[in-house]
TrEMBL record:
Its main location: membrane. The chain crosses the membrane at residues 21-42. One of its GO terms (molecular function) is protein serine/threonine kinase activity. Keywords: ATP-binding, Kinase, Membrane, Nucleotide-binding, Phosphoprotein, Serine/threonine-protein kinase, Transferase, Transmembrane, Transmembrane helix. Residues 167-425 form the Protein kinase domain. This is non-specific serine/threonine protein kinase.
């Protein structure tokens, strides 16, 4: 019997003995069973949570393109008071320079920084206007994942689908060529605005990178805060704090829920806050940020009538050694500076011009370009210059204002706006100067400008007595 079994197992089939074939088949069956067991075990561990659990995704973040990984605050910016990403992760406090970080909090190992510049002394002796520090609790507290980019929060697509009720049409609060903005609520109850970029992957990546580079690391109470982002497949989304009181354009036109118009005091508060935010972007960080699309609809308003600049999709970064950059002309008709529209040359003075147009909007309640008006009044800037030359400035005030500003305040605000929209960019003031002009009760010529003009007058009139120079300044003031 044993000899017969051995003979049977020793028989050859296709060059292999029968026992070898049986061993190979059993080994294959064992490997298949083992693989199926491992797959079922892994699937069970990674299955989605039950309906009773909070739908928080704990997946590993997707890979990030190299250009996004390399975003950081450079050495110059860090020296202005903002720690670099490496410093932030090493938990070392940044050196205290001219800017101060107002608050740094930690929640379960996840840090969240918010701050505002207090005072920045420039080389020429001028200073950047201060802003109150931010001390509000972080809207990211209680969320599961902290971004590995060194700022903000990484959200999964499932997180944002849950927050926006699967991107419900009822939650749309804005749209445009960039994509759609939805109102949502995070799992910790924080209201947010989710900006879903168009699925054109190349353009979406570009817009995503621009906004991250521009405001991913900056904090100012008059800038809309970028809380985080989502990158899954072709999806590119940015998550901002939700500002709940409309925008400046709506309040100037009475298009808000209560059909009310802003008072003069509220308009001035909003404009001063916007000027300080632009001063921060232009003068307090390196590289400076040129917004490129300052307009009334991009100035959001919170419930305390604080302004917050939004929509950095067209923003450009300008290094300290660059006076201009050449780029394709973008922006909104009526707000674009003439030198930029004509030649594509861009610097921070282009934002100053756009801000001047917004300032004229707030004074008059008119659109920058309105073809429904008589020909001399179509273009707001040109009509305003004509009215001031004809000494009819009292007639330009928004008729929807219940209480008109005093003559001196109106004159100061008008002259500030006209300096901002000067056709020669080098004659426009810096935004820190604009903020001081609007807050000051003096004629809007900064002291350093008056000293320079006084010096120039003295050089040109060496033979004149000193009194002539003084009289000239009094006439200007």
């Amino acid at each position: 019997m044993g000899t017969s079994l051995n003979d049977t197992l020793s028989q050859k089939y296709s060059g292999l003995e029968l026992w070898e074939i049986i061993a190979i088949v059993l080994s294959a069956i064992f490997i298949i069973v083992l693989a199926i067991s491992l797959y079922l075990t892994f699937r069970k561990k990674t299955s989605k949570p039950s309906s009773k659990q909070t739908p928080i995704s704990l997946h590993i973040p997707p890979s990030v393109p190299e250009e996004i990984k390399e975003i950081r605050v450079d050495d110059d910016s860090s020296s202005n008071g903002y720690p670099s990403i490496s410093e932030k992760f090493s938990h070392k406090e940044p050196e205290k320079e001219t800017l101060e970080v107002a608050a740094e909090s930690e929640n379960g190992g996840n840090s969240s920084r918010s701050g505002s510049f207090n005072h920045s002394e420039k080389k020429d002796g001028s200073s950047v206007s201060s802003a109150n520090p931010l001390t509000a609790p972080s809207p990211l507290s209680g969320l599961p994942e902290f971004s590995h980019l060194g700022w903000g929060h990484w959200f999964t697509l499932r997180d944002l689908q849950t927050a926006t009720n699967h991107f419900s049409r009822d939650g749309i609060i804005g749209d445009g060529g960039y994509g759609v903005v939805y109102r949502g609520s995070l799992v910790n109850g924080t209201p947010v605005a989710v900006k879903k970029l168009l699925n054109n992957l190349g353009q979406a990546d570009k817009d995503f990178r621009v906004e991250v580079e521009a405001i991913g690391h900056v904090r100012h109470k008059n800038l809309v805060r970028l809380l985080g982002y989502c990158m899954e497949g072709t999806q590119r989304m940015l998550v901002y704090e939700y500002v709940n009181n409309g925008n400046l354009e709506q309040w100037l036109r009475g298009d808000n829920q209560n059909h009310e118009y802003l008072t003069w005091e509220a308009r001035l508060k909003i404009l001063i806050g916007t000027a300080k935010a632009l001063a921060y972007l232009h003068e307090a960080i390196e590289p400076k940020v040129v917004h490129r699309d300052i307009k009334s609809s991009n100035i959001l308003i919170d419930d305390k009538f604080n302004s917050k600049i939004s929509d950095f999709g067209l923003a450009m970064l300008l290094g300290g050694d660059e006076s201009f950059i050449t780029t394709r002309v973008m922006g909104t008709f009526g707000y674009v500076a003439p030198e930029y529209a004509n030649s594509g040359l861009l610097n921070e003075k282009s934002d100053v011009y756009s801000y001047g147009v917004v300032l004229l909007e707030a004074i008059t309640g008119r659109y920058p370009v309105d073809y429904a008006r008589p020909p001399p009044e179509v273009h707001l800037v040109e009509w305003m210059k004509m009215m001031v030359q004809q000494r009819r400035s009292e007639e330009v005030v928004d008729p929807n204002l219940n209480t008109k500003p005093s003559t001196s305040v109106l004159k100061r605000t008008l002259l500030t706006a006209l300096r901002c929209v000067d056709p020669l960019y080098e004659k426009r003031p810096r935004m820190s100067q604009v903020a001081r002009m609007l807050e000051s009760e003096e004629y809007p010529i900064p002291r350093e400008d008056r000293r320079r003009r006084r010096s120039e007058n003295g050089t040109a009139r060496d033979s004149d007595p000193p009194r002539n120079s003084t009289d000239t300044d009094k006439t200007q003031e």
